[in-house]
Structures are given as C-alpha cells and as structure tokens.
Design goal:
alpha/beta, 9 helices, six-stranded parallel beta sheet, binds adenosine monophosphate, 9 strands, three-stranded antiparallel beta sheet
C-alpha cells in the first residue's frame, strides 16, 4: 500500500510549500478532519484541476466542537487517510498536533457575524468561530493558491468565503459538489455512527429537501414547502430536528413567502447517535 509521510509542524509545511513554489508549482489546500471517504476524494480531484500540488490537512479541531459534542469519539483513521490521499494523487498530508495549533496562551478568536448566526451557528454556539479560526490558521500556515471545500457544508463554505474576503487572505476559495452515497445519504465521516435502521431513517432528510424543492418549483411559498418537508420528517419519526429551512443563497436570510432569488433548503437532525446535515438547491 503506497502512503504518504505526514507533516506535523508549521515549519515543515512551509518549507515544503516554499520548495514547490521555487519550482513554479501552484498549491492547493484541502482542509479535513480526517476519517476520509469518497466525498473527500472528490475534493482532491477538484483541487488537482487548479493546482500542481495538493496538501490535505487532517486535524480534528477541538475549538469547533461544543462541550457535549463528539470531539473525543470523532473517528480518527490517520493511516487509512494517508493511503487514500496517496491513492488519489495528493502530495502531502498535514496533520498537526493540538499543541502545534493551539500553543499555551492561545488567545485569538475569529468571528464572522451574519452568515454564522443561523442554522448550524445557532444550533452549535461557537462552532463557526472554531471553523473560522482553524481555517484562517491553515490558510496562513500553508499559503495555498486555492483551497477547496465541499458544498456538503454549504453554510461553512459561505462563512469561509466571507472571512477570506473580509481579511484579504490571498487565496481562491473553491466549492465542490456535495457527494452522496448510492442510497442518497450525504456522505459523512459521522455516517460511521449509524445502524442500518438509522441509515434508512436518515434518508428521509434528503427526501424532505427534495420535496421542498419540488413544492417551490410548483409554486408553493417557502413556508408551505417547508411544512411539507416537516410533515415527511414527522411521518418518518424524526423528532430531534435542529432546523429545516429555506434560506437565501448569498445572505443566508430566511426566505418567507414566494421564493424569488436563488435559495437553498437546509436540514440538520439527530439520527441515532449522529447529527446529520444536508442541503439541496431550490431552483426557481
Ligand atoms: P470534514 O472532514 O467532514 O470536516 O470535511 C472536510 C471537507 O470535506 C469539508 O470542506 C466538507 O464540506 C467536505 N466534505 C465532507 N463530506 C462531503 C461530501 N459528502 N461531499 C462533498 N464534500 C464533503
């Protein structure tokens, strides 16, 4: 099995990137929390279209988990991750330690208001502060030409676009399409927590979003469409719903009444031991 050496320090990462730059290579960064799956592999493919060298970071970031969330239980599969990155043609795995990222006395926050305040930001207080902080650090450490993020976490992508623009970070942020398993469930590292019965139930998240999109396409208001989606979830006995909403694509404002501008339907719910999220475009 071919694998890749793991880079653990900012110093070594910078040295490797500087050497590539000296050869005139373009560099891409694909930030992940590891437990890699085929969704992550498509991000590497995407990155390779825009850069000569692809760095995949693997870091389970403690600051984006709430006190009662799954930080300790989050799957860690570094050996397999390295083999997958190598097989997909990635060039480096950057897996820093927690003290490397958060040395003693660490005191800085990155907060993005507006787009961070709703959906996962409201359901997981502090989550996007943690994401914005770690992605800012990774971008400054690596200094890539492009950074690739999945539309699976559509709100996260909007948050990242916003602070990259606001802070003048010199990187092109690219979104890559949401990848689903064959049965339609959005591929996620957290799907490892699901039993077969959970999976069957979880498929209703995707169904609810599609129902909402179809309702809007046939003229329903955002509220009516959302009500139809919610009825489907209730029927499937999904009760721990963080949100089910239609929001404006750019501003993330809640859409009420007729849908007049590009929008997206979002859902988050607890299924078995996992909190799953999904989203779907609303075509006008
Ligand atoms: P994670 O390791 O789950 O934090 O995700 C790392 C990156 O992979 C993020 O940009 C995610 O949006 C992206 N990603 C995770 N799952 C998928 C998926 N099913 N489709 C597309 N991108 C994904």
């Amino acid at each position: 099995m071919t694998t890749l050496p793991v880079t653990r320090t900012v110093k070594d990462l910078r040295a490797a990137v500087a050497a590539w730059r000296a050869e005139g290579k373009r560099v891409a960064l694909v930030p992940t929390m590891g437990a890699l799956h085929h969704g992550h592999m498509t991000l590497i493919d995407h990155a390779k279209k825009y850069a000569d060298k692809v760095v995949v970071s693997v870091f389970v970031n403690p600051t984006q988990f709430g006190p009662n969330e799954d930080f300790d239980a989050y799957p860690r599969t570094e050996k397999e991750d390295c083999a997958m990155v190598a097989a997909q043609g990635g060039d480096m795995v950057y897996a820093p330690t927690v003290p490397e990222m958060y040395p003693d006395g660490f005191a800085t926050k990155v907060t993005v208001s507006g787009v961070s305040d709703v959906l996962c930001g409201a359901a997981r207080p502090g989550h996007f502060d943690g994401v914005a902080l770690i992605v800012t650090k990774l971008l400054l450490q690596c200094g890539p030409d492009v950074a690739v993020f999945g539309e699976k976490d559509f709100q996260q992508l909007q948050v990242i676009r916003r602070f990259v623009r606001d802070l003048d970070i010199p990187v092109e942020v690219l979104g890559a399409p949401l990848i689903r398993d064959e049965d339609g469930l959005a591929t996620s590292s957290r799907n490892k927590y699901l039993t077969d019965a959970d999976r069957a139930q979880g498929l209703n998240l995707h169904r609810a979003l599609k129902t909402m999109a179809a309702a809007v396409a046939s003229g329903a208001s955002a509220q009516d469409a959302t009500q139809q989606g919610r009825a489907l979830l209730t029927q499937a006995d999904i009760t721990q719903i963080d949100y089910l909403e239609i929001r404006d694509l750019e501003t993330m404002a809640l859409v009420e009444g007729p849908v007049k501008a590009p929008a997206r339907a979002y859902v988050a719910a607890k299924i078995g031991k996992a909190r799953l999220i999904d989203n779907w475009p609303i075509a006008l």
